[in-house]
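re: ur msg from earlier - yeah i can do the adenosine-5'-diphosphate complex, just paste it... oh wait u already did. ok heres what im feeding in:
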Amino acid sequence: MTTMFNNNHREAPAPEKGSPRIRVTDLDAGYPGRPVLRQLTAEIPALAMTVLVGPNGSGKSTLLGVLAGVIETTAGQLRYSGGRPPAFVPQRGAVGDALPLTVRQTVEMGRWGERGLWRRLTVQDRTVVDSAMDRLGVADLSGRQLGELSGGQRQRVLISQGLAQRSDLLLLDEPTTGLDPEARERIAALLTELVADGTTVVQATHDLEAARAADACLLLSDGRLVARGTPEEVLTAEALARIWQPA
Ligand code: ADP
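and the outut:
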């Protein structure tokens, strides 16, 4: 649930709709002793919804980590056009159930990037936190422990934390996995609203409905980009069989 920022990311005017918000060229990245992404070239369009799809282990989370600036690249280029440092919402499963944090404390962590760890939050920070919690409908859970919440509630809290960072670039790792249809729809609707309000959203997903509703789709397989385009172009019968084959 760490709040991630890329230090190289300079604040500048956000790019126009459809122009590249992020461009990666011939990118290699992975973990110590474990190369994952290979020769990846792709663009993330600004003010649009991009989905990353592919089988388990194909490198979707790794690519999100690279875009968030928390996984180092070993070759190639990663270029951001303008805007603010990205906000990263990791997989719900990556967040410890037993962390002794309340909902409000969790969302407040979204302000640390701007405020620093040790400075008190300002009145304005609190307003940002309140509005992020309101937007996700978790304000009434504010004093509850994260570990007591349902999966859908916890996911909404993590997205609130992302919103509290006030970034124009939101990266989410499988935000709807394991949720019931109602919770999934609620999150999908919110992400659509955020795009309409001027946010660039990138999500890794196994949710076919979410993938079909996106503006742009990147299909990964074994660390390589094997297709990119609109969902209609990318999500062919062959691609779907590939995505849902056992890893
Ligand atoms: P996806 O999100 O598509 O399921 P990942 O990016 O999580 O794929 O994983 C890509 C590959 O990287 C997998 O083979 C996975 O085992 C490996 N991997 C993921 N995280 C780590 C890590 N922290 N250390 C080493 N290898 C990892």
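cool cool. The radius of gyration is 17 Å. ping me if u need the other ligands too
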